[in-house]
Please model this.
Amino acid sequence: MTHRIDSLALSRRALLRTTAAGAATLAAATIVGPGSRTNRAAAQDAVTVRLVSPPSSPVERGALETILDEFEAANPGIVVDYQPITSEYNTKLQTDLGAGTAADVFTLDSMPAPDLMAAGVMEPLDSYMSEAGITAADFYPGLIQAFQQGGVTYGLPKDFSTLAMVYDTQAFADAGITTPPANWEELRTAAETLLESTGQAPIVFPPSLDRYIAFHYAGGAQILSEDGTQIVIDSPEANAALEYYYGLYTDGLAATFTDVGAEWPGDAFAKGLASIVFEGNWVIEFLKTNAPDRQVGFAPMPEGPAGPATMAFTVCYAINAQSENKDAAWTLVNYLTGAEGMARWTSISGLLPARPALAGEYVSQFPDREVFVTGGEYARPWQLGIGGEKFNIDSKA
Amino acid sequence: MATLAQAPGSGSAKPVKYKNPLAAEDAIAGWLFILPAILIIGTFIIFPIVLAFWVSLHQRDVVGSVDNWVGLANYQDILSDNADFWIAFRNTAWFSLGVVPTQTAVGLFLAVLANRKIRGKTFFRTAFYFPSISSSVVISMIFLWLYQNNGLINFIIRKVGLPTPKPPWLSNPKGVLEMLWTGIGWDSAPAWIAGPSVALLSIMMLNIWTTAGTMMVVFLAGLQDISGDVYEAASLDGATRRRQFFDITVPLLRPVILFVVTLGFIGTFQVFDQIYVMSAGGPAKTTTTLVFLIYTEGFKFGEGLGYASALAVVLFAIIFVLFLIQRRLVEKKD
Model:
């Protein structure tokens, strides 16, 4: 008995010691930072380029790692140290830039881009681009413009997503609607018919700017003046757009996702709580996984008084202005956003190619995404000038 | 307490000469022993406090491209009429006024129960304390589900046959007192007495539930310091249990109550995680608290780092004043 207690005490002490050692190792590992990809540096004088991005899913992360392996194989002199950042990416990026410890290459959302472009922490890419024979015209205008300020290009779009109308073809057929509504009046009529046949609010949208803004633009309203110096949100067009959008809600034709008990509109659609939602191409994979039996169709956003409008949610690759390996960083950015690299990336990840030249091949691989790709031709960037990111966050609070 | 804290030679007003070289060595050894603590506290507490005050006098962004001396302009902005500060202050004040008295009362009630000789005492103590030691983020996420439109809380309300709030709990910006005012026909009640929104009240409930356990443990320790003789003498004199509670337990627990209330005010004025996870300050800014405002102003792009630092200094001043008032109140009665 005594012996057992002794051994127990001993093992407890050993445990304590191991725990302490373990904790120390863990702390050290955290400080040093995990090298997520194995750096098989081939040449001794290889340049290491540090890349950070917030992967939205394990699939996306896997796809990027595949592409980076291919890049390293094609560029023996460059090793890419990829560090995925899974939460609070923008906050971390800002503090790293402030502390001078930011990565050589980072991705950046269109919304906060104007703030960082103005802060001078992003390397101007124009000279690199002209040397490599790349022009802004190689990309959809709505995407590349998001990363230009004062005639200077600071980032190249890596891919994008657009909004489209996602509808339940079964519910449409049951209600006798043969073609998806193409404009605001048709949408209202279709919603009224669906409400009668299904008994629930057919449209589910979020009470937030990032979906409403497509209606705002389709109604011919603006948020910022052409030169970006004034807020011109108050206009008759804006009133009409808001009345139309909010009218759908007050007339019981639309509900918010919290009203119906879903986590987001796509979730409401998957659960059969909505027949029409306005979402981006990310909804396709979500529905395949979560509601494989739903009959789903995709159509462009209904046209408003001012014609068609959709939003482009895009992200760019940018080079840190303080980077010591700018040439190697550019080689990486140029590969990831170039015709060959982007074709590989979009074919694996399923995200839309930011280069119109790649659209044809992409659509033949992913026919169900055609509507989203063609939206790129007239999509406007999800961007509200300097301070837009803060406004967007404030508007949600 | 004071005698314990005195270092050799530092207690008297006169400069002390070390007659004994060993005493000097002792002093050096003493400093060496506390050096790690000085370094850590200096680097991670004192220096950031001074820096925050310094930054609060600047207009500055996180990236470091803008850094202008603006003097007290940030403080003027904070105290100007249309600042978000007042919204956040109002929300935080409602939060504190709702949470602190309730969690103190519930904590005391639980402690008195758990102090009795009842079966399963240990189980109850553990069960009540459990929420306090769980991760606040995890608990917030669980409550997020509970509060959903078709979550457990609405499910039970529907089962009982009562109407569920629309919009659901965490998306409802309506003030609870405002609902009361409209209920009694006063339609033009000013905004500052609209009370916490339904969303904020939902988060307050969560906070009371998690913190009451911590307060219970503190009260339990206090209760065990009260000698049983006092109660025995009181019951011999014919005091009822009720009188014993109000005339013996509560007065003897006064220092503990001060501690719990102070802790409660500091904690509630610094509430952040629950807000960050559950509502992100919305709907309609009705759950934007001071610390959440500091976070969004400071880190969400723009040139608000100085403004956020100034907010932090103001928050410090508010908590400090609250603490002084509490101390004064308690000392007077003693």
Notes: The radius of gyration of chain A is 25 Å. The first helix of chain A runs from residue 2 to 32. The interface with chain B takes residues 90-91, 94-95, 97-98, 112, 115-116, 118-121, 256, 258-261, 387, 389-390, 393-394, 396-397 of chain A (CB under 8 Å). Chain A has two domains: 47-160+313-383, 162-311.
